[in-house]
Write a structure and sequence with these properties.
globular, 2 domains, 4-stranded mixed beta sheet, Rossmann fold, single chain, Dihydrodipicolinate Reductase, domain 2, alpha/beta, 7-stranded parallel beta sheet
Length: about 375
């Protein structure tokens, strides 16, 4: 059984959790696969993913083996698998472009990016030499040029893409067509955590509607201490993040709220929280007899491990797409795993269509994906 050959663009906290997880689940039987949505997708379990290339721009990571780089500062996520096998994968210097916000220079080195002086490598050639099949994009929020650079590299190198960040590639019709024409699948955009603020907020929003309670106003406020939250202190980098998170919740309403009555987005950077993300959700509605109803929720999670299991699923779905010759956005998987997919669906439908795509034969899987793209089953 050949492993899925994966490249990583951005060796930050999310990449750290992913690499740790690939080793953590190795050799375990499926009954011990706690924390995964799917134990197997196609022929692949979580340990059937192999990292074959990695790119970053930080001087503490570039030139190191990937299993060392994932523990280098400013990474601060929880270490749940410290023992990792020695690999031959060296983190290569990628192009900086807009990947580093200027204000990072004003913060201590242990908290912020410190770009390397090395010259960027030829990313396309590295992908080809590594025989990569899927690239996972973990660029910082607001890195529009950098994400598009890696998307173009995927197209040139013949590599599928999992876009974990809110720069719109899969959900942009022009980019979607480029991947479709190239015969390359893409899952995107902007990863949903397993049990994170967005998926909880979406679920509660739909619950209000399903139980006949009009939602009048709501907010979601988030704090954290990782580089993602530090990066997002630059408000000009937040445009697409706010669009992604807000649209994701709005999509679960029968009638979208006026912009005054919905506020969703990162709130502040709290260094001592490290990779712990705390979300505060408030929802106000009206129940029987127009009697006011209020809900408040506090969610505390380790941010990066919370997304790693979802990414493992997305990688395997992208590989299925490659095996089945499906180019362009995998709309069911994108709707299930991403905040801003090409086509928003209720999570129950996205789950059903994704499971159908996974479980069917090669021909049936392609039919299921075509059904999701044409809206069948909605």
């Amino acid at each position: 059984m050949k492993k899925i050959r994966v490249a990583i663009a951005g060796v930050g906290n999310c990449a750290s959790s992913l690499v740790q997880g690939l080793e953590y689940y190795k050799g375990r039987n499926e009954e011990a696969f706690t924390g995964l949505i799917h134990t197997r997708i196609g022929d692949w379990g979580p340990s059937d993913i192999k990292i074959v290339a990695a790119f970053d721009i930080d001087r503490r990571k570039v030139g190191k083996r990937v299993e060392e780089a994932i523990f280098a500062k400013p990474n601060c996520t929880k270490v749940f698998q410290s023992a990792l096998p020695v690999s031959e994968v060296i983190v290569r210097m990628g192009p900086v472009l807009d990947g580093v916000a200027p204000h990072m220079a004003d913060y201590p080195a242990d908290e912020a990016f410190r770009p390397s002086d090395e010259e960027p490598v030829d990313v396309i050639q590295v992908l080809k030499d590594a025989k990569a099949e899927v690239l996972v994009c973990y660029m910082p929020v607001g890195s529009e040029e950098a994400v598009r650079y890696y998307a173009r590299a995927c197209l040139e190198a013949g590599v599928a893409m999992v876009n974990c960040v809110p720069v719109f590639i899969a959900s942009d019709p022009e980019w979607a067509e480029k991947f479709r024409d190239a015969g390359l699948p893409i899952v995107g955009d902007d990863i949903k955590s397993q049990i994170g603020a967005t998926i909880v907020h979406r679920t509660l929003t739909r619950l209000f509607g399903d139980r006949g309670v009009p939602l009048d106003r709501t907010y979601q406020l988030n704090t954290g201490g990782n580089t993602d939250f530090l990066n997002m202190k630059a408000l000009d980098r937040l445009k697409y993040k706010k669009v992604s998170k807000t649209e994701s919740v709005q999509s679960q309403l029968d009638k979208p709220l006026d912009s005054r009555n919905i506020h969703i987005g990162p709130s502040d950077y709290v260094p001592w929280q490290d990779d712990n993300k705390v979300a505060f959700i408030r929802m106000e509605g009206r129940s029987f007899g127009d009697v006011p109803l209020e809900l408040e929720l506090r969610l505390s999670v380790q941010d990066s491990p919370n997304s790693a299991g979802v990414v493992i699923d997305a990688i395997r779905c992208a590989k299925l797409g490659l095996e089945r010759g499906i180019g362009g956005p995998l709309e069911a998987a994108s709707a299930y795993y991403m905040k801003r997919p090409p086509k928003q669906m209720r999570d129950s439908l996205a789950c059903e269509l994704t499971d159908s795509f996974i479980q069917m034969s090669d021909t049936g899987g392609a039919v299921a994906e075509k059904a999701s793209q044409t809206g069948v089953g909605e």
